[in-house]
Specification:
Chain lengths: 57, 253
């Protein structure tokens, strides 16, 4: 296991490359989830305002 | 009508696409994850160390699939941009604009992992040679497309302007691909070739191909997820979106 992590002395180059790969793709995968939640929330707020305006005489 | 064409027309309708993408998303993410784990295991554990580069060559398994994706995604974006400009198909605008950030992410990974590979092998993090410079230009093209899209208020006009920029940038794709042939560069030539023999042993090649498959599937998953949200915002005045918004309403007591 230790030998595997050492990557033949190249650990300082191999693991950061893999870390960047994971972090970038993770951020990319989460972005649409957050965006979807935000836009649905904004939309609901707008619908609520419209409904409130309609119900006041 | 031909059922395939009929289905294609249906796919162009935002509510249908939204449901279609929602159904496929979990499967695509799962497939990408499984293929990714198998490929990474093959590349990090099963493949032997390179006789010249030792274990540092294992960077290839993130670097090369992402580099291929940076070109593939750009081509996909430009093709959809072309369709959007010529036939004004709303879904194509959305698909083109949704691919830009994913392509930029892949290009960024390519540049950073390449830099991390260059330091131990070439003795430098960065050099202004043809391959590296043209890949950096590709990243700036992605930034340009994203920036232009967000700079214009009207979403559909913005998408068309950005699609035009994406089309112009296509000229950079052959430059990236052939840079190692046309110029004398520090970057090595292609090891894997679609036609003809690859200059790599099978034990090192199959993880690379598996990861290439995984990144392609991942791209389409991310593309569907992003397009789906973009359509939601684009169509926020429509009935189907309003119905969806009230259906997903969290329950306040």
């Amino acid at each position: 296991m230790h030998e595997f992590l050492a990557m033949g002395g190249y650990a300082g180059y191999v693991w950061p490359a893999y870390a960047v790969f994971f972090l970038m793709l993770l951020a990319d995968a989460l972005a649409p989830l957050w965006q979807r939640r935000r836009s649905l929330r904004d939309l609901r707020a707008r619908l609520a305002r419209q409904a409130a305006r309609k119900s006041t005489p | 009508m031909n059922p395939l064409i009929l289905w294609f027309h249906k796919l162009g309708s935002p509510p249908y696409f939204y449901r279609f993408a929602g159904r496929w998303l979990p499967w695509l993410y799962t497939l990408a994850l499984i293929a990714g784990v198998i490929g990474l295991y093959g590349g990090l554990v099963i493949a032997p160390a390179d006789y010249q580069q030792g274990d540092s060559f294992r960077i290839i398994y993130v670097h090369v699939p992402c580099a291929w994706m940076s070109l593939f995604v750009y081509a996909f974006m430009a093709a959809n941009g072309f369709i959007a400009l010529v036939w004004r198909i709303k879904l194509s605008e959305t698909l083109a604009m949704a691919s830009a950030p994913i392509g930029a992410a892949f290009t960024f990974i390519t540049l950073v992992s390449g830099s991390l590979w260059g330091k131990p092998m070439w003795g430098t993090w960065w050099t202004w040679d043809a391959r590296l410079t043209s890949e950096l230009v590709l990243l700036f093209l992605y930034f340009g497309v994203i920036g232009l899209y967000h700079a214009i208020e009207d979403t559909r006009q913005a998408a068309r302007a950005a699609a035009f920029l994406a089309l112009v940038g296509v000229v950079n794709l052959p430059i990236v691909h052939y840079s190692v042939v046309w110029w004398n560069t520090l970057h090595q030539g292609s090891t894997v070739s679609l036609m003809g023999q690859s200059k790599i042993s099978a034990s090192m090649l199959w993880p690379l191909l598996t990861l290439t498959f995984a990144t392609h599937v991942y791209f389409f998953a991310s593309l569907l997820a992003r397009s789906r949200v973009a359509l939601l915002e684009l169509e926020s005045g429509k009935e189907w979106v309003r119905a969806l918004a009230s259906a997903t309403e969290p329950n306040h007591a």
